[in-house]
Amino acid sequence: MVATWFLARLPLDDGLQDFLVLFAPLFVAGLVMLPFLIPYFDRKAKADLAEHRRATPSATDSASDPAAMGDQAAGPRDEEGRP
Asked: In angstroms, rounded to a whole number, what is the distance separating the alpha carbons of residues 27 and 82?
């Protein structure tokens, strides 16, 4: 409401003023909602990250067990398969 009133008082072209009167209050409302939306997205991101970590095998688990690594435990090899 305040943004619309302020923009209506500015000396702008009709097309630009109509555009700003429509979108500036939406922008201001988005800025006001931002502190309330950030915790929601933060919780969702943490839950997704926890699910990703649970679904993928840990790098420390396979690095501590050379038998689980198979051929990779011997180190890098060239094109012909030699260490």
From this structure: 62
Do residues 26 and 35 make contact, with C-beta atoms less than 8 angstroms apart? no
**CA dihedral of 20, 22, 27, 32, whole degrees rounded to 10:** 130
Q: Where are the beta strands (DSSP E) in the chain?
A: none
Asked if residues 31 and 9 have their Cβ atoms less than 8 Å apart, the reply is no
25 neighbors 4 (Cβ within 8 angstroms): yes
Is the pLDDT at 8 greater than 60? The verdict is: yes
- Tell me the average pLDDT across 53-61: 77
pLDDT at residue number 71: 54
Find the helix or strand (DSSP H, E) in which 83 lies.
none
**CA 22 – CA 61 distance, rounded (Å):** 56
